[in-house]
Each structure stands twice: as C-alpha cells, then as structure tokens.
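Lab notebook, bench 4. Continuing the backlog of folding jobs that were queued last week. Each job is logged with the same field layout so the records can be merged later without manual cleanup. Today's entry covers WH1 domain-containing protein, a 115-residue chain. Filled in by technician R.K.

JOB TYPE: sequence-to-structure
TARGET: WH1 domain-containing protein
LENGTH: 115
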Amino acid sequence: MNSHPPPRRVANIGSILLTPQENECLFGYLGRKCATLCSAVVQVYVAERNASWGKRCCGVACLIKDNPQRSYFIRVFDIKEGKTMFEQELYHSFSISSSRSYFISFAGDVRVQLL
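JOB STATUS: finished
OUTPUT FIELD FOLLOWS
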C-alpha cells in the first residue's frame, strides 16, 4: 500500500490588471503541466550597444514552473495573439537586480534585460 499523498496541483496565479477572461486565456498559453506562480503586465527592454534601453515587447510576464522541462522560466506572453514574446530560464546562479521597486534587470543570453 502506498502511503504517499497524491501530488498537489499548483493553482495558476493571474494578474490583477487582467480580466478573469484574459487570465483564463493566459493560463491556456502556459503549456501542458506548466503553472504560473505569479503574473504581471510588463514592458521588456534590452540594453543597446549605445548604452540606452530599447523596448523589445509588451505583454504579461509569468514566473512559470515548467514540469516537463523540470525548470523555472520567466515568459512574457502576448495574450491577444497567444504568442510567447520573451523567455528566460532561471538557472542555479541566476541573479536579479532591482534598482527601483518597479524595475528588475538581469543578464540575459546575449544582453541585459529589463522588466
């Protein structure tokens, strides 16, 4: 007899800035066996070569637990188009800076990213 309790399913957390219908659309874009631990409406900027910031996209950022990939990601979705606009895997030594309460920045695969 197995005494282990069944695994709990993590509930998706939407953004308070979205309607319930928009949050449900967002949850549908996450992928199979993925859950969003938090969500926020964001603009994504990248560091340009001339020491300025360039806007890359706008959308809904989610901190995602991706069970099939056994990893965590920040993914930004366009909820109208249903597309992933940006993705960053959170690896073991991943580091985030917050110079302001409304900005986070981190080193991306190629350049510094700002949410």
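OBSERVATION: The radius of gyration is 16 Å.
SIGNED: R.K.
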